[in-house]
User: What shape does this take?
Amino acid sequence: MLMYVVRRLLQAVPVVIGTTFLIYFMVFAMPGDPILAMFGDKTPNQATYDALAAQYHLDQPFIVQYGLYMKDLFSGNLGTTFSGQSVGEVLARTFPVTLKLAAMAIALEFSMAVILGLFAGLRKGKLFDNITLVIGLIMLSVPIFVLGFLAQYFVAIKWGWASPTVGSDTSLANMWLPAVVLALSLFTTSMRLMRGTVIDTRSRDFVRTAYAKGLPGRRVIPVHVLRNSLIPVVTNSAANFGVLMVGATVTEGIFNVPGVGNTLYQAIIRGEGPTVVSFVTVMVLAYVVINILVDLLYAVLDPRIRYA
Amino acid sequence: MTQETTPVTDTAEPLVSIKDLEIGFQTGNGFVQAVKGVSFDIFPGETVAIVGESGSGKSTTATGIIDLLPSNGRITGGQVMFGGKDLTKASKQEIVRTRGREIGYVPQDPMSNLNPVWSVGFQVREAVLANNMAKNKKDADKRAIEVLQEAGLADAERRMKQFPHQFSGGMRQRVLIGIGLAADPKLLIADEPTSALDVTVQRVILDHLESLTREKNTALLLITHDLGLAAERASKVIVMYQGKIVEAGPSLELLQNPQHPYTKRLIAAAPSLASVRLTSSKVEAPSAPAGDEIDLVAAAAHRHEVVEQADHAGTPAIEVKDLTKVFSIRRGSFRSEPFTAVDKVNFQVPRGTTMALVGESGSGKSTVAKMVLGLETATEGEILIGGKDATALNRQEMLAHRRRMQPVFQDPYGSLDPMRSIGSIIQEPLDVHKIGDRKERENRVNEVIDEVALPRTVLSRYPNELSGGQRQRIAIARALALKPDVVILDEAVSALDVLVQAQILQLLADLQEELGLTYLFITHDLAVVRVVADDVAVMERGKIVEHGKVEDIFSNAQTEYTQKLLDAIPGANIPLGA
Assistant: This one.
């Protein structure tokens, strides 16, 4: 088990090196001069320009820049943004916010998917099944910024149930509306997966055996149907969690959430190589860790799965 | 093993009385009536067997009694009287109370009937608690261990925390029997409880079921497609056909003096009974069967004559010398240990004859088949096909080699690609081996479909539109497409109903006569061997423990293991009137 986790973490090393190299290369290859961009419409004098270029290693060839960056990365120094802040500090400020938002959204998404999917599966073809399908499809097809703006206008501004923007107060109470918007935009696939597996599990032989034992339906459904149906939903929700960790850029923008999505977007626009790469590295690691956790969760859900 | 002697007194109240039961299914093609007015009684302590082929409505009748029908099934008429109540009109709560406590149920397939995510102990305890057989969890655990020990799991205490996948099929079936009997029900419904198990395991399980039900005076409703098994275990046999009871009566009487033509067909087609008839009477086969009836005894006798006349001189079609296969089995993360699956096996199969390779699961018989087919490499030894060594071939030679030797596998559902039409499935080997042009390939496909006696219209259909027997014919047609010399039949008839099985066995015999084929017949069922094979080799733990002519082995088995396999044939001890 421990061996398995160590092996999986070691597998992440080439993944991290590969992604950072690709991202670094892509940022490097982007058109535009990042130093000129820092000064807006003004033009810096040559001396200032050269000093800045030397400071950020922009006068070096690509491969040297990348090498220097990786050296810093492994010694724990994530570099500084062009505005002079330490990338490490920016990450430490924004990442927990995104993590909190993503966790809230996924907790909601997962609960909605499991509960609605279970009942839709049990009432296959009935009114409840059809209503959840229609609502799910609407949520899936409405673009997230429409959903976001509507929620902001009605729930926050018109009815005053939530604050329209999050700003610096990132408490759970202040962030629930964007979390709900994200959950609504994501829950449909998980719910339909749950519904399908429930229908399938329900017709399995062991469920009939459970009834034959004399168990009432209120025990057979949670004990024999629900648990056996969870694996595909867990997989899908975990993948959604990974997507949210990368930052729900649009939603964070609408509700002014100071998370990684916003920051990363700004960094890409300004061509800040080290910032972008540091963010991506952390995201890749987060993704890898989440996937390992999900794989371990499989073994909890299904004893036939064992890791050695 | 002996006939049940429980007297069926007319004065006793029946435990279950089923009257004019009608059950139907809502399908894509409308409502289909599966059970059409079935009536019978089960008396306390009595064993009753319902026999019939798939689709005869036997399982539907059994599951209908305690409302375990699939969601599209519905009881449309009649009544099931149990303890003074009509179960077809009982409320949900009443049914839940009856299940387990009053009427236990043992399902068919031990592999799919235990929930893989809960421990075995949990699932037995659940049955104990659901029927108020224990007050608290500790008592329930004690009772669960008791139940499992009664069902024949000696080390139940240690195994309570284990999961179903850590149990063998036979052990899982014991668990399911334990669950079925956990609350001492008055009636136990056993729906083909052993058809997924090896013959020897089948026998142990049935013996156990019999002694348990007798001890507790539990009535047993046994559902089976094997008439021999039914007659051996039950005092009363009910024969069902197309949703109706065609004949019912005391089992011996029914077997010795069948009245209905369908019962006669079932008896003629049952390999277990045929082998009894072959051993008991050396007299010539009974009068020619009428209509589409297939008499395995007549077929076997005819086939035997043909093979006798055939020329056995020359190189054998298959010759295996000191064949050995060693697998390495993982033990923990880094260690592995060698496991000898096949150990210095030697045999020859003369051209145009059938050799049966018999043994229980895990005896190595299928590994031998895979090595002969070149699907698995031999660790040591030689395989000579028509005198040519098949173990040292390069890719090109292997392709040519495979052309002369084709397999037919056990599961007619799993071995045909569901996404391809029958025509393209049969034609595929011709395409792979680049035989002839398009026209010639099409002609060959038409030829083989005629050979397996199916209409050419099936060529444009898909596997899911065909029955199990038709699919197995397709699998045989695909094997024959390349005009092979040798056909390896790996449990090719084990998954089929008796009547379909008899048809396929007849077809194989006809094809052998016409085309001079050599068969290597892998099976766990000695009853089938009796009617199809010339030679037989019995395998146990990778070794051939006995080898000889079929007649010799059957009349005079040398090893205890072979004798055990022979005794396990259901119905082996039933005296038939002939």
Q: What stands out?
A: Chain A has a mean pLDDT of 85. Chain A touches chain B through 26 residues (CB under 8 Å). Residues 66 and 192 of chain A are 44 Å apart (CA to CA). The two ends of chain A are 5 Å apart (CA to CA).
